[in-house]
Amino acid sequence: MDQFTLNLIVVGITFALYIGIAVWARAGSTAEFYAAGQGVHPIMNGMATGADWMSAASFISMAGIIAFGGYETSAYLMGWTGGYVLLALLLAPYLRKFGKFTVPEFIGDRFYSGGARLLAVICLIVISVTYVIGQMRGVGVTFSRFLEVSTDTGLYIGAAIVFAYAVLGGMKGITYTQVAQYVVLIIAYTIPALFISLQLTGSVLPQLGLIGSYAPSGGDMSFLAKLDSVVTELGFKAYTGDSANYFNMFLFTMSLMIGTAGLPHVIIRFFTVPKVADARSSAGWSLVFIALLYTVAPAVGSMARLNLSTTMWPAAVTGSAFSGPAISRADIDSKPELSWIRTWEKTGLLAMSDLNGDGMIQYVSEPADLAANTKAMGEAKAALAKAAEADKAGIEAKIAELTTAREGLLAAAQVGTSGKTFAEMGLTGNEVTKVDNDIMVLANPEIAALPGWVVAIVAAGALAAALSTAAGLLLAISSAISHDLIKGSINPNISEKGELLAARVSMAGAIVVATYLGLNPPGFAAQVVALAFGLAAATIFPVLMMGIFSKRINKEGAIAGMLVGLIFTSVYIFIYKGWFFIPGTNNLPDTAANYFFGISPLSIGTIGAVMNFLTAFVVSGATKAPPQHVVELVESIRVPKGAGSAQAH
Amino acid sequence: MADKTSSNAYWAANIRVITISLVIWFVCSFGLGIILRPALKGIMVGGADLGFWMAQNGSIYVFLVLIFAYAAKMNKLDKEHGVDE
């Protein structure tokens, strides 16, 4: 059976399973639609939250980012898990006791203000919509690679599947589907990791493999030391090397943690458990299931990185990379075990070019000045292809200038730790011109030459990760529209049946918008994630926390705090990434040298959160205290007794 | 709010548990994993230095233990103060 048929069968079976579950768990009431009727066991809820949380970014991108970023990118590992501690300790049990359906609803009641609720709805929709675009893209990319349809067709199929089970089933259907999706995605992620860890370190558990010894050279060297020695020999930064900026790494980790705890689609999961005590343990169970993937991720990334390097330099398996020849283009084109390189080259996410024409593909790191020359040369050549006849001479002169400069650079720049220059090695540059982070997880089983069914399961897992997160986000969006906007302000007398219909219609509408944005991505999918986390950190988390832990924070303080957090954070991001992400409208270049105190736009959410807290305290102190019924509300959410089930009224 | 003193004592106890937990949370992730990493290079966990291991794996295990310990402690406090469901 060929790989394509195998992929089709495995993905088909998982889809049939999701639809079957959705039909079985149809939602009949708003309580079931928004909060699954609050009858979900904490362990089930934990698995569903795990699937909800682990998006295409966690499944497909994270290990690849870690593979090439090394130690510094541990910020993702700590940030995306540590947020659950904040959730369990500071938010989940109290919001469950509050006993309503949505995050804006709490903010509106606690701060006795329709304006605060509306502001929360706006933040929620911006956060969730930016997030859902990435998921739809993930679905499209996975389909196009594994089912050999176009990205657009893949997107339509994905949208239809989500539509079927999310609109029908609401939170109840989504929750049980997510349990199934969790099982699929965790199997898909860990199976290749177990095989690869066994091959490289002799240890079945990837978590132990990461700190174990490197098996192919006889086990006298640790795996990490081997990885460091290979990548530094090729001129790259050591995997375990120091962070370039520990302060920024600190802030980035903190932003991701606070952002995680402030993401509405994660918070609403804790409205679905039966009791307050369950909300606490449910956060723990969520983290158990998330940790299964997150503790494996650094092993997946680092091992894929070593496998990629040794594929390109076969001698590196047992000794020095440069003690043997690099991989030859002829081998890539003929050997079946290297067919993955050809398949990924077709997608454009992996690109190789035999620059010096010696028939080999030399994968090395170019030092900064040489890399800058390569980049400028690429841009000039792209400009030349598009330029009008009259402008061509100028660009050609520029290319000639760059070519001369390059000669000098090649004669001076050293190839990694070889002790020889590029010119002495006969190299004219790094011949692996592109390795996209995103291919590392998807290509991992193929790089390690694992059987075809493993590849098929990874495809199903990537789809499960993207679909489950998309469904959770769509639910958060639809409940914000139908419950907070329509019932909360436009038409408070709407019947339960009418509200349920409104929820379904707004979810269908959200799917259409998400599909449209997935088909026509604004070209900033990666950057907007920074905005989503930054805003969640700077707006929703602080206001929820203060609403629970302070009786003194009032309406004025909360609104001022949210506005300051929202405006400060978005402006800082726009300054570097372009206003509303329109390319070319940025005021400062997006490089470390231009950041205030070295703080990258990704890390600014922490500062935004601090400003939100400070503003809220100062403004609340200067205005009058909240009314008595609000003080009583705060006192009541602080004790678990008498939580009952969630009430719409 | 029948028993205001009891619920005040309950809240104070809760805040104490949260504070201790957050100190552990901070020290293990931001402390050992980031700030103190350069100073702790000599301590090895298998093939990794302590700070590196805490950042890539260890802190996640600490988070897990922390949440379940907090949940257990709070369940006990709920019962002691008569505010459990």
Describe this protein's structure:
The complex is a heterodimer of chains A (649) and B (85). By secondary structure, chain A is mainly α. Chain A is 69% helix and 2% strand. Chain A has two domains: 3-303 and 450-521, Sodium/glucose cotransporter (Up-down Bundle), CATH 1.20.1730; 350-435, no CATH class. In chain A, strands 1-3 form a two-stranded antiparallel ribbon. A two-stranded antiparallel ribbon of chain A has the order 2-4. In chain A, helix 22 runs antiparallel to helix 23. In chain A, 56% of the residues are buried. Chain B has 85 residues and is mainly alpha-helical. Helix content of chain B is 74%, strand content 5%. Chain B has helices at residues 4-35, 50-80, and strands at 44-45, 48-49. In chain B, helix 1 (4-35) runs antiparallel to helix 2 (50-80). At the A-B interface, helix 5, helix 9, helix 10, helix 11 and helix 13 of A face helix 1, strand 2 and helix 2 of B.
What is this structure, in a nutshell?
With 649 residues, chain A is mostly helical.
Count of discrete domains of chain B: 1
Could you give me the name of the CATH homologous superfamily of the largest domain in chain A? Answer: Sodium/glucose cotransporter
Q: What is the architecture of the largest domain in chain A at the second tier of CATH?
A: Up-down Bundle
Low-confidence stretches of chain A: none
Oligomer: heterodimer
- Shape of chain A from CA axes? globular
